[in-house]
N-acetyltransferase domain-containing protein
Amino acid sequence: MILQVTHDEDDLRFYAPAGEEEAELTYTLLEDGVLDLDYTYIPEEYRNQGLADQLVKAALDFVQAKNLRFVPSCPVVEAYAKRHPAYQRFMAEE
């Protein structure tokens, strides 16, 4: 299943329809262009199908396009960043 991911900057999340629910990756804004990617939710029946990766990729592509930085507070984001080293240069210093 390929998600049509939408970025809702007012609600601080990336989301996509998944059946009758939504898959989402939420974040908070920290200082000077740092997004704390903090929570990923995938509805039960859609888990283990790569949907979380699609949300994380959309978020990290946004970070990259806007020349921002991110904190991978969500374990899903942290694992994705480890598997895709090109995004690691956008990771904020801890």
Notes: The chain has a mean pLDDT of 95. The CA atoms of residues 27 and 89 lie 19 Å apart. The chain has one domain: 6-90. The radius of gyration is 12 Å.
